[in-house]
Design brief:
mainly alpha, elongated
């Protein structure tokens, strides 16, 4: 059976709608949640 790989790109905002920065711990928890759900994650700054 052939298993094809797919790549998805998800852009996370750096600021909320009111202009306040998104805390680093919130970004980190989002990346952790994606890794747990999909098995892998990579990030660029």
């Amino acid at each position: 059976m052939s298993r094809s790989l797919r790549r998805f790109e998800i852009l996370l905002p750096l600021r909320f709608n009111d202009g306040q920065p998104v805390p680093d711990d919130l970004v980190a928890s989002t990346l952790l949640e994606l890794e747990q759900r999909f098995g892998a994650v990579s990030a660029e700054t």
